[in-house]
Amino acid sequence: MTNQELSLKILELVGGKENVTAATNCMTRLRVNLKDYAKADIEGLKATEGVLQVIEMDNLHIVLGPGKAKKVTDLFKADAGVAEGMSTEADWKENKAALKAGQKQGKVKTALKAVGDIFVPLIPGVIAAGLCSGFATLITQVAPGYADIKWLYIIHQFLTMINTAFMGSITAWAGYRAAEKFGATPILGGMLGAITAMANINNIAPLVGMWVEEGGDALNAVLRAGRGGVLAVILGVLLMAKVEKWVRSKMPDALDIVVSPIIIMFVCVVPYVFVIMPITGIISNLLVSVVGAVCMSESVFVRMIAGFLGSFLFLPLVAMGMHHGLVALYTVQLETIGFVTLYPALAMAGAGQVGAAIAIWLKAKRTGNKRMMSVIGGALPAGVLGVGEPLIYGVTLPMGKPFITAGLGAGFGGAFCMAMKVAATTWGPSGVLALPIMVAGGNSATTQMLCYVIGLVISYIMGFIITNFTLKDNEVANA
């Protein structure tokens, strides 16, 4: 079967061109976004000559092999008539798919996406743990004598337990997910991740000269429990995946299930503890120090500039798929200092979109663009709650200019939050839903929450004002 024939066959089996919204490729796969995945003949695709495997993820991954994937994808996009651009006429999901399909997958971007893919399934745990931590902090500050109130004390204990259930084992969860991502055995990845935080490492470090002198700061030890955190886990499991592939290829089937796991663990754990953890520990400390020096700087001016730029640039990073690396930074901060400094400012980005959308809605009403009013009316409540994709991909990004003006408006809110040293107990929730997690940093929990709300309001107002003054009525009327 030629590449052209294969492209047409795949198009037929995924439900025809009317069922395809976007298509792109990585090194080995054709990735297809469909309107209705039920129309795809998965078994037929798997049985097609030239198709090595079919994987159902957030979109359909059709494995074709190196080189072939790019050639077939180019033909497939032409055969399917996949649009490269975006339109305000399209559904926001179609616009998002079209944008992603047109982006090049460089090495850096692929690596950042891999990190994001590891942590995305952990987000429910991150959010649950962070919210519980936020509520527990509120209890201790609003009711200092909570320990003497039985029912309140019990609630505080449950909140603390839920938070610890995730944060106390975060390296194990990350190891499990990294193993799934890199093709290693998940439970072995989880075990390697769990080893990261074990106190046994503190017993080993002094014996090999990797500990601090008596009376020194153990946190600065070359090797200690927790050193490197999730960064160490990701690299360690990547090594494990390669080792496991080699070991299992040499191991007789009769011995594989018994012998391979112990060999894999022993081969990986030594370089992991003595090499990977110390090196990634240096990197983790450097990341935290750099971000801390900017976001927690004694200079209000420095913090405000950082907050403005972070809020302004965040959504363009999201649109380009370059925001995944921030997940690792959030997690490193959460592990190291117990809160996240950059996230509150970045959360302002969605608020700027809300302000811009209100300005566009008013202009749409004035010019009689009922379709635009309907789109914004459906997307705006979600935007206020922190779900920004309908506004971004359905309104501001397709129009172009409002995407920039919304970011500029958000910058003012981000500058305020950073100036007030607002910090979060986790990352994930945004908009008004993020209010309970904005309780960390230099002030009391209630003060931090109030500052976060003020930041949202500033972003709403400035996003509205800048968009209203720079966007002409005819630009909305013709959108």
Explained architecture:
The protein is mainly alpha-helical and 479 residues long. The protein folds into three domains: 3-79, Gyrase A, domain 2 (2-Layer Sandwich), CATH 3.30.1360.60; 200-295, no CATH class; 300-477, no CATH class. It has helices at residues 3-13, 42-46, 68-80, 92-101, 107-119, 123-142, 150-167, 170-182, 186-195, 200-204, 229-250, 253-295, 300-319, 325-337, 343-346, 348-367, 370-384, 389-399, 401-419, 445-470, 473-477, and strands at 20-25, 29-34, 53-56, 60-63, 422-423, 440-441. Helix 12 crosses helix 14 (325-337), helix 16 (348-367) packs across helix 18 and helix 16 (348-367) packs antiparallel against helix 19 (401-419).
Task: Describe the secondary-structure layout.
Blueprint: H1 3-13, E1 20-25, E2 29-34, H2 42-46, E3 53-56, E4 60-63, H3 68-80, H4 92-101, H5 107-119, H6 123-142, H7 150-167, H8 170-182, H9 186-195, H10 200-204, H11 229-250, H12 253-295, H13 300-319, H14 325-337, H15 343-346, H16 348-367, H17 370-384, H18 389-399, H19 401-419, E5 422-423, E6 440-441, H20 445-470, H21 473-477
Antiparallel strand pairs: 1-2, 2-4, 3-4, 5-6
Helix pairs in contact: 1-3, 4-18, 5-8, 6-7, 8-9, 8-11, 11-12, 12-14, 13-19, 16-17, 16-18, 16-19, 16-20, 17-18, 18-19, 19-20
